[in-house]
Amino acid sequence: MFKLLGRFAKTEDGAVTVDWVVITAGIVLLASLVGNGIHDETVDLGERVGTQVAEMKAKDWE
Q1: 35-52 burial, b for 16+ CB within 10 Å, e for fewer?
Q2: Rg of the chain taking only CA atoms, in angstroms
Q3: Where in the chain are the domains?
Q4: pLDDT confidence tier of residue 25, bands split at 50, 70 and 90
């Protein structure tokens, strides 16, 4: 029984899978945070540009 437990503790076959899952989860989390930040800034910039264009059109019509 102790030999079986010793062999089980020494094998590292499943450890690589766990590493890949953790690394992939970290990459997905980081990408979603960066994407969310870019999205917010892009929407804000688009609104500011839209406001400027609307003001320019209003001046042209006067």
Answers
A1: eeeeeeeeeeeeeeeeee
A2: 27
A3: 35-62
A4: very high
